[in-house]
Structures are given as structure tokens and as C-alpha cells.
């Protein structure tokens, strides 16, 4: 089965990852790419300052970049991946869904809306059926689904593994790579020899999206998890891969080994982009892992890593890491796209 797909915002940091991940994908065939009016009309190879570590696929290099508007997307595209700035996405994504397109989006607009599925397939695939509620409420033939923010997606799989121990609170401090800000996000003068202790909106995203992702769906609505999440987000001069220090308060007192076993037991799904295991766990013999440079490409960039697990007076502390433009962005959307196909929504 071949599904024709398009990428909205195909020239940016996440858009380029989409192109890399869709090259030779077993189901998806890239048919169209869009970007801003400045790029529209140009061949992709001219419009994109290519920064990914594999060459632009030949068939993509010659695609003409289209405008990002409902009337410019060809009707024979079955699924759209979106990596637009949220200020652009909030206007154009609903227009496209109304026009009948199914959109798997990275952009932060509507992630916490009641009728928009926010999914990590290995954690809450059942939330995808919110599409039925969305179609009823909005009268759309298409659909809009979201993956979480890149820092949230790194931590939530580990919190899901702790839920059986009575997850009460999670405090997290992040060390986030520069690619998370997009190509024009932070300048070298700001970030070299420096750490920026503020990333606009990021803390709030971690604090809200985590609770929706860990929530329960009863067929009509998602009841958010009552875990309290408190985040402090920092930009550091690594290129790719967000590292996070998590302190979780639990009702029970599991040993570090029990926590490691719970994290190790999170299976992947039978979808092309899902890793065999969602979380790779480092034991006490490797206390200095995970590290961005060494571990971000585990599971082709789709695995979360955890390590440094230690018991505390209130529960447990550990470090976790994932690749922010793959598991945290383009790979997350592609995996959601695979779930949409698997469940018959595309
Ligand atoms: P980026 O590098 O700045 O790329 C933005 C893309 O959107 C480019 O293709 C750009 O096209 C296009 N664009 C900009 N203004 C537009 C307009 N007015 N109309 C149509 N297209 C427009 O940003 P990014 O890092 O890829 O992030 C994209 C989205 O993903 C954002 O919403 C971001 O929050 C989210 N996200 C990013 C990450 C990450 O790790 N980077 C992780 C999770 C989520 P031109 O080249 O023509 O300007």
C-alpha cells in the first residue's frame, strides 16, 4: 500500500528531517512540499539550506516548493505532515482539515484542545479515536492530530513507566539542543560558550502536554492525569538531542532496579518507525549516560534513553534523552502517520 504525503514547512529544521525519514519509507510516498511565499516556486534544492547529514534525495531536490495554502495542496495527497511555525499553522491547518486533508502536525497550536488527539503511539494510541469527536464537533472531513513538544516527548515515556508506582509529581530541568529552536532560532553569539536559562513557552508546554498524554480517554473526552509537573528549560550548545534531569515523587518506594525494569519493559509497536523498545535504560555501571552525542541516534533516533536512576526520599531521580528533531518532531509525526494508516483513518 502506498500513501501519498506532503510536508508543510518542508524547508526548515524539522521539514528536512521529514524528507530524510520519508526517503525509502515502506508506506509513504512524498508527493508535495510547501514553505513560505519566499520559497514558493523554487526547486526544493534552491529553497532549502540543507543541513541534514544525508544528501537531499534526488526526486525531492527537483520538486517545486508550493505555497502553504489549502488551494495549493493537490487533492490526491492522502496525508500531510506539518512543521510550520505555530502562528502560521493555527490559520492554515484548520482550513486544510476542513478541505478534507488529514494532518499529522508538530506545531504547538491546539495541542491541548479537547478534541485534538495528542499522541505518542507507544504511550496513548487509544487517544487517536478523538478524531471522531473532532469530526462531529467541527464538521471536518479531514482531521488534525498532534505530537507533543520535543522536551515533553523525551520525559513522558519515562513517566508512563512510573505510573504503576503512583506518580504524584515530576520536577524536570532540561538541557535542550540548539536545533530545537529551528534554523533562525538562536545565533552563535548567543549560544557559544553559554547557556540560556529560558525558552519561551517551553515550560508551560511540558507542564500541560504531559498531563494530557498521560490522561485517560473514555471514548468521548480525555481526563488529564493529575500529576503535577514543574519544568525549568535551558538551551545549551549541543546540536541535536535534549537531555533532561527528572525528579519524580511516587506514592510507592520502588528500588532503582524496579524502576529500570519498568522502563525497560516498554515495548515498541509493530509500526515501521517504532523502535523495538521505547526506552533504552543504562545501568549503574554507566552512570554518565545517556549523552546527546553518543545516544541521540539509538533506534534510528526514535528511542528514548534513560540512566542515572537513583532512589530519593520521595521517589526516584534519573536522566533521560531523545533526538529532538526525530523522536521529538519529524519522527514523532511520521509515527503518528503510521498509526493513522494502521487504524484506518487514512
Ligand atoms: P524552522 O527551521 O524555522 O522552519 C520553519 C518552516 O516553516 C520553513 O519551511 C519555513 O519556510 C516555513 N514557514 C515560515 N513562515 C511561513 C509562512 N508564513 N507560511 C508558510 N510557511 C512558512 O522551524 P522548525 O524548527 O523546523 O520548527 C517547525 C515547527 O515544528 C515549529 O512549530 C516548532 O515549534 C515545531 N517543533 C520543532 C522542533 C525542533 O526540534 N526544531 C521540535 C518539535 C516541534 P521558508 O524556508 O520558506 O521560510
Jot down its keywords.
alpha/beta, Rossmann fold, Dihydrodipicolinate Reductase, domain 2, six-stranded parallel beta sheet, six-stranded mixed beta sheet, 12 helices, 14 strands, binds NADP nicotinamide-adenine-dinucleotide phosphate
Structure commentary:
- By secondary structure, this protein is an alpha/beta fold.
- The protein contains 12 helices and 14 strands.
- It has helices at residues 13-22, 44-47, 58-61, 86-98, 121-124, 130-138, 150-162, 188-191, 202-213, 256-264, 292-295, 326-342; strands at 3-8, 28-35, 66-67, 79-82, 102-105, 143-146, 167-176, 216-217, 222-223, 228-235, 242-250, 279-281, 304-311, 315-322.
- The strands form 3 sheets. A 6-stranded parallel sheet has the order 3-2-1-4-5-6, with helices on both faces. Strands 10-7-11-14-13-12 form a 6-stranded mixed sheet.
- Strand 8 (216-217) and strand 9 form a beta hairpin.
- Helix 1 (13-22) packs across helix 12.
- The longest helix has 17 residues, at 326-342.
- NADP nicotinamide-adenine-dinucleotide phosphate (NAP) is lined by residues 9-15, 35-36, 38-39, 68, 83-86, 88, 106-108, 149-150, 179-180, 182-184, 324-325, 328-329.
- NADP nicotinamide-adenine-dinucleotide phosphate binds at residues 9-15, 35-36, 38-39, 68, 83-86, 88, 106-108, 149-150, 179-180, 182-184, 324-325, 328-329.
The rough form would be described as globular
Secondary-structure element order, N to C:
EHEHHEEHEHHEHEHHEEEEHEHEEH
CATH-derived topology of the largest domain: Dihydrodipicolinate Reductase, domain 2
User: How much of the sequence is in beta strands?
Assistant: 15-25%
Outline the low-pLDDT stretches: none
CATH architecture of the largest domain: 2-Layer Sandwich
Q: Mean pLDDT, rounded to whole units?
A: 97
Please give the number of β-strands: 14
| Annotated CATH homologous superfamily of the largest domain | Dihydrodipicolinate Reductase, domain 2
Count of helix runs: 12
Summarize the biggest pleated sheet.
6 strands, parallel
- Ligand catalogue: NADP nicotinamide-adenine-dinucleotide phosphate
* Largest sheet strand order: 3-2-1-4-5-6
Query: What is the CATH first-level class name of the largest domain?
Result: Alpha Beta
**How much helix is in the residues?**
25-40%
Amino acid at each position: 500500500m502506498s500513501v501519498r504525503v506532503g510536508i508543510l514547512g518542508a524547508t526548515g529544521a524539522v521539514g528536512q528531517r521529514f524528507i530524510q525519514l520519508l526517503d525509502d519509507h515502506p508506506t509513504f510516498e512524498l508527493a508535495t512540499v510547501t514553505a513560505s511565499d519566499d520559497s514558493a516556486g523554487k526547486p526544493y534544492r534552491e529553497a532549502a539550506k540543507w543541513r541534514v547529514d544525508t544528501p537531499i534525495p534526488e526526486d525531492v531536490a527537483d520538486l517545486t516548493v508550493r505555497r502553504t495554502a489549502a488551494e495549493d495542496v493537490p487533492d490526491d495527497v492522502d496525508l500531510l505532515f506539518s512543521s510550520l511555525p505555530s502562528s502560521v499553522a493555527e490559520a492554515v491547518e484548520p482550513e486544510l482539515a476542513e478541505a478534507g486533508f488529514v494532518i499529522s502536525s508538530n506545531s504547538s497550536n491546539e495541542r491541548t484542545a479537547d478534541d485534538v488527539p495528542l499522541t505518542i503511539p507507544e504511550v496513548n494510541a487509544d487517544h487517536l479515536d478523538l478524531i471522531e469527536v473532532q469530526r462531529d464537533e467541527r464538521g471536518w472531513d479531514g482531521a488534525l492530530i498532534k505530537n507533543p513538544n520535543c522536551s515533553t516527548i523525551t520525559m513522558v515515556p519515562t513517566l508512563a513507566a512510573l505510573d504503576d508506582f503512583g506518580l504524584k509529581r515530576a520536577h524536570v530541568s532540561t538541557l535542550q539542543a540548539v536545533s530545537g529552536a529551528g534554523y533562525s532560532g538562536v545565533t552563535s553569539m548567543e549560544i557559544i560558550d553559554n547557556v540560556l536559562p529560558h525558552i519561551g513557552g517551553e515550560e508551560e508546554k511540558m507542564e500541560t502536554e504531559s498531563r494530557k498524554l498521560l490522561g485517560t480517554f473514555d471514548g468521548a473526552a480525555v481526563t488529564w492525569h493529575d500529576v503535577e509537573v514543574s519544568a525549568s528549560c535551558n538551551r545549551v550548545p549541543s546540536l541535536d538531542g535534549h537531555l533532561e534531569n527528572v525528579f519524580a515523587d511516587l506514592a510507592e518506594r520502588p528500588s532503582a532496579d524496579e524502576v529500570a525494569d519498568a522502563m525497560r519493559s516498554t515495548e515498541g509497536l509493530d509500526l515501521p518507525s517504532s523502535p523495538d523498545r521505547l526506552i533504552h535504560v543504562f545501568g549503574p555501571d554507566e552512570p554518565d549516560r545517556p549523552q546527546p552525542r553518543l545516544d541521540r541516534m539509538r533506534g534510528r533516533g526514535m528511542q528514548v534513553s534513560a540512566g542515572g536512576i537513583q532512589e530519593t526520599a520521595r521517589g526516584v531521580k534519573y536522566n533521560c534523552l531523545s533526538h529532538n528533531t526525530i523522536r521529538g518532531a519529524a519522527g514523532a509525526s511520521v509515527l503518528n502517520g503510521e498509526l493513522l494508516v494502521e487504524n484506518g483513518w487514512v
